[in-house]
Amino acid sequence: MNRLLKIILLLVLIFGSTKLIYSQDFEEEEEIVSTELKEISVSQLFEMIQEMGSDVFVQDVIVKSNAGDEKYLVDKLFFKEYVVPMPQEEAVSLYLYNVQFDLEGKHALVFSGWEFLKLNIINLKSACNIHFEACSTIGSYPIRIENSNFTKNLLFTGGDVSISSIQISGSSFANSLDFNQDFNFVQVRNCNFIADSLTFAKADEEVIHAQLDFSGQTFSTIELANLDFENQGFENVFSLNMAGTEVDKVNLFNLEMFAADFTDLNINKALLGDSLDISHFIAVQNFDFPAENTNLLGIIYPAKNFACSIVKPLVALKFIRQKPNSRCRRVTLQ
Predict the structure, then answer these.
(1) N or C of the chain: less Cβ packing under 10 Å?
(2) Residue 197: its pLDDT value, please?
């Protein structure tokens, strides 16, 4: 179908659709009762993990750097990070309940090459980058992250391995939630993305950063619901980056965003959305979607600052040709 006709059809769907009702059976959230935290070193954390075997429970602790922990640091030339190996060759279940990571020098904590039966992260607070590198899952149980606070990045990178499904809810992110890995199913709901002013004030102003990043990866389904994004006035901080993403189904419900990058996004089967508030702009160069399976309602988008737009009363959905340097690029801030 001609791209212009698809765009026009998209607008017709926006204003002619019946109200969408968003319903999804979520995994029941696990209630963890907070207790007084015991302080342990990175060395003690590593030893605890290695001793537990197939079921690794880390609960009610605050992990801080201590003398002797440097032996677990891996030199990455320009920085160092703590790399946590799997405790055994077979798949394991990892439970992080009511844990705080406060590492000296803000070194990243990297779980490298893990194969998970289960991964539950509940009531976690992290002041360092948390990185799941080349990790995978077996079985149908989703990765669950609930009621957690990430001051730095939460990053998934996969290489040649993928993850089946992940559900994230009730959490806050001050830097970036980055899916640099293929997933089957991703669900993020009831979360806040509030940019950390100190971190982004030091970032390169010529690079566009994303608070929620799916760019360049392949997914079956992405579901985003009830998400608030605050870029704290940094115009190079985008809310959502799906540039170059290949995905079958996308559901977007009740999102408040500053800007989104849908450049080269390819949606194969369905695009559903309701109550999308985009305060600045949305980039859609080469954005491809199934017009016959697209249903959007309530796109709030002010008309300003762009020469090329298609406008309807009260709502303006802009389609812009980007400048070469305006596309989001994935940069992990330390």
Answers:
(1) N
(2) 92
